[in-house]
Amino acid sequence: MENKVSIYDKQHRMSDNVLAFLVQFCSILAVGILDIIIGYIVIRGVPAFDFSYLVSVKSTLKKTFGILPNIINTIYLIVITLLISCPISIGGAIYLNEYATNQKFVTIISFTTEILAGIPSIIYGLFGRLFFGEFLGLGYSILTGALTLAIMILPIMSSNTQVALNAVPPSYREAALGIGATKWYMIRTVLLPSAMPGILTGVILSMGRIVAESAALLFTAGSVAALPTNWLTHIFSSGGSLTIQIYLEMEKANYDYAFVIALVLIVIVLILNYLAKWITRKFDVNKVD
């Protein structure tokens, strides 16, 4: 009787061992590079950091340093960009995923979205400056920067929303429609709540993109770091974000101040990423308690 050798009894091939080693090495290398970057920023930024920087305004005459206006401008950019992009991206994703019947049209839109995601941010900045700033007459303003950023993050939010909607089991839709619910009622009460973790994750990741952007904002929002005199009309004024202020400080060789701002940005980005993971775990309808 011929003995059959199980696949589990066979020895691993050398190529398998090499590839496994390369995968582990690349993973360790990626984590190591991240640790080096964060560690270097912490080493350079913590000794120069002062909590007064967070509530002060930079003044050449008084020889003071502060990033409060930049923090406020960054918040303005985040809020306005999300108010513009969320309805468009989420609504578009719902239409493509639930209503569109022409698959050729859906394919074209998906391909266009992928192209938008690959365009360098500097190109968005040039477009935003010429269209929103010059053609629409908004000039260098927070609103110009927010409109430009809204176009930049549309692919991120739209693709995340589509993935979240596709992850909802088809039985949820069938059960809701089977008991007589209209399609919009099913989307509003069943589909969106189930897909909410993925949608919120996309929103938070988009916030991280907004916080980290600099090239596009340099051409659109400008670099003025001044406290708002009117909270409503401030969006029509030029306002430099935290990343723009880093660029200005590096240009003037103020490296300590630049690393302080970089430290603040790293903390913000880490908080946003942690928040995205927490929301995913917290509202995951498929997790087992």
Any key phrases for this structure?
single chain, 289 residues, mainly alpha, two-stranded antiparallel sheet
Characterise the protein shown here.
- By secondary structure, this protein is mainly α.
- The protein has 10 helices and 2 strands.
- The protein has a two-stranded antiparallel sheet.
Structural class category: mainly alpha
β-sheet strand percentage: under 5%
Q: Within the largest sheet, what's the order of strands?
A: 1-2
Tell me the helix content. Answer: over 70%
Number of helical regions = 10
Give me the count of strands: 2
Write the layout of secondary structure elements.
Layout: H1 14-45, E1 57-59, E2 64-67, H2 68-99, H3 103-118, H4 121-135, H5 142-167, H6 170-178, H7 183-212, H8 215-220, H9 242-251, H10 255-282
Antiparallel strand pairs: 1-2
Quick synopsis:
By secondary structure, this protein is mostly helical. The chain has helices spanning 14-45, 68-99, 103-118, 121-135, 142-167, 170-178, 183-212, 215-220, 242-251, 255-282, and strands at 57-59, 64-67.
